[in-house]
Every structure is written in structure tokens, then in C-alpha cells.
Amino acid sequence: MKKICTRTLTAAQAAAFEELTGLCRAHDKIRLSCPLDGDRFYLLSGEMPDGTGRPVLNSAIAVFEGDGLWECYGFTRPDARKRGYFNGLLEMLEQDAAQALPEPDLCFVADPNGSAAVNVLAAIGAELWYEEYAMEWNKGACNSLHSAPLPLSPLRLTSVSVESESRLDFTAWLPGDQKAGSFSLYVQPPSACLFELEIAEPFRGRGLGFAMVRQLQDLTPAIGISTLTLQVSGDNLPALRLYKKTGFHITETLSYYLY
């Protein structure tokens, strides 16, 4: 068995990671997606048990580094479980986190329908923190929903590129240059991730959140995207209602465990 940590996946490693997560999704009946855009990847490779000697990725953890918190996605082949492979990678991960962070916190993401992952997290002492929904809006699928023209809105959207062309920060203005709200997009055509959407407190309860999201949806062709994705906390009912009202649907339920 070979254990490594890498910042960037080769084409072969990315293909093996996709194969691994696909096997886990099919076997465990989960929808957790394949996180190929992480900051670190812990990989444990071996040989296929069929005697061919073909290399195989038995277990992997993708890590997204945040300020004081690392978000982790772990997968182990169904036919290679209960052999300590995941724990071996977790040990490497803990050592690296201890060197990089003064008080490291690890957060593991799991599909609540995946009993295997939930049982492993319970076994290592991870505790459920909160649940979150992944949601998606697709322009083609929602054309019928939004066939009527958008009612005239007092909002005016402006945008600037931040750090790189892939991130756009939007501001919503009311007449008199009053800042009513803001949101950001991380653009990877043909889709973009919507995050940090907020309406300024004095303007809440006026339907401006709905107007802002709908204006964004009408702008998607100009941005070069057809799909919007986002994540929202399961206990944020106002946000859930807003996104459902604007045509988003839930694609995944994610459970976050602190370790």
C-alpha cells in the first residue's frame, strides 16, 4: 500500500478519484459529489485483488483549507473497507493539520443516507455539527417557471472581478445609491456557485432578495453560464424559501461532523 499527500491531482489520479467516488455512490446509495478542486488530497493506493496487478485507489480524503477549519471528504472502496485504510490517511491528515493550524479543527462532510460513512465518523468520535442542502437552478429547466417577464424592479446590479476573473462580487443598489444587498459568484462555465447573498437589514422583508436572485438568473447568458449552484444551512428557513421560490431544487443533503 502507498500513502501520499498531494496538492494537485494528475489526470490519472483524478480519474481514479472519480472512479472511487462513483463506486461509493452506487454501493452506498449516496449523492455526495466528487471534490476534485480541493487544496490537499490524501490517497492510499494498492493493487486490484484480482491478481492482475492493476493499481487501484482504495481510499482518499479531499481537503478544503479554511481559516482554522479544514473541510474533508472521505471515500473508501466498498471491497476495501474495515482494513484501516481510512484511519491511515486520517493519521497523515491530523499530522499535517497540527503543523499548519495552531488549534486544528477538522470537519467531515457526509451524506446522511450513507450509513457506512456515518458509522465510521461515529467510531472516530466525530460529532454532528449541522446539516446543509446543496441546491441547483438550471436556466433550461426553469424556462417555463419564469416564462413571464420579470416585474419592473428598482434594483440595479453592479459587479466587479475579485482576485481572479473566476470570482464576481455583485452589489444591488436602490435609487439614491442606497446599497440594498450583495452576493458573489464563483464562475466555472457553464455553471457558477452563488454564495454570501445578503440583503441589508433596513431593506429586508420587501421582496428584494427575490428580485436580486431573479435579476441574476436573467443575467446568466451574459455571464456565460446556464446553471447556478449554492449551499444553504438546513435551519435557514427564509433562505430555503427564497431559493425554492426562485426555482432552485435540492440536489444533496450534507451532514457536517466536527472531529
From TrEMBL:
One example GO MF annotation: acyltransferase activity, transferring groups other than amino-acyl groups
PROSITE patterns: GNAT
Key words, A-Z: Transferase
Superkingdom in the source lineage: Bacteria
Domain N-acetyltransferase: from-to ranges: 130-259
Protein name per its UniProtKB record: Acetyltransferase (GNAT) family protein
Species of origin: Enterocloster lavalensis
UniProt lineage: Bacteria, Bacillati, Bacillota, Clostridia, Lachnospirales
